[in-house]
Amino acid sequence: MKKTIIFLLTASLFLGCKKDQKSGVAFYYWKTTFKLSGLEKQVLLDNHSDKLYVRYFDIALEPKTKHPYPVGAIHFIEKPQLQIIPVVYIKNEVMLQKGLDIQNLVKKTIGFIAQINSKNNITIDEIQIDCDWTLGSRENYLQFVDLFKKNCGTKLSATIRLHQVKYFEKTKIPNVDRGILMYYNMGRIAPDSLNSIYDPDIAARYLASLEKYPLPLDVALPIYSWAIQIRDYKTIGLKSKIAISDLQNNPNDVHLNSRYFKVVQSHYSSGIFYRKGDLLKIEQIKPEDLKNMADELKKSLKTIPSEIIFYDLDACNTKQYEKGFFEQVARRF
């Protein structure tokens, strides 16, 4: 009887802690200059968020030499007053290179992050690697992560796509402290797709795999929208950070239905040419979509995520959501 009572007390304490565990709120910051607007600061305050995952730079291949080089490094106009986690986006083309000097790439990547931190007096305790690696780039990528973790001196996280979860026995698991499940960009960017950012039917094909994935996972959710430019039933362009309201106020565009606009007068906008007759297909994430995503994932993840990261912090993306909404979504886990 005594052992039974002890067991029940222990179990109740464990369940109580799990129930009380809450997912924190964080945001990605995906610009080349760091300067928070008043609205962006207010979003952080309203959602009790004190952490930003800041894109420091991309790594791509130099066109002529085919050597890896940094692209679009962040420039801090103001010093961050909250916790910063540097994110380095590595194009898969880099990891596909045969004979890639991984040791040199790791050294230069860590060195460049340290240089940015030193210049801006930023202290970090984590770095995140973002790369949509494939079977062809798997070995280079895994070696890169292994060596990076040994030399970076901080915690290390990595982004994980849905296909990498479902087929992890083939794609393998990077040697990091935790993964960030990128729960978006699920479908094809095409004239006839439902919504390439989030499609519940496509998501359903992967959810069952989450329970089997060995790496601890936090979650990244989308809050952005874009317009797909269609001409003669073919996709010819993609304009990010645009909403239905932007097109509704443009006299050159006519609203056809909930997803499509038609260009009625040829014009240029932000350096892009829109020809009369082009269609603009809006793909966006509505508040109800985010709630559905949270509920789907809660049923499928093995553990409650320590934080939910929203992509990405920008006034254009956040204006459609009510005060404190992102914290509400995180509380659904």
UniProtKB/TrEMBL annotation:
Tell me the organism. Flavobacterium noncentrifugens
User: Domain of life of the organism in this record?
Assistant: Bacteria
The name on file for this protein is Lipoprotein
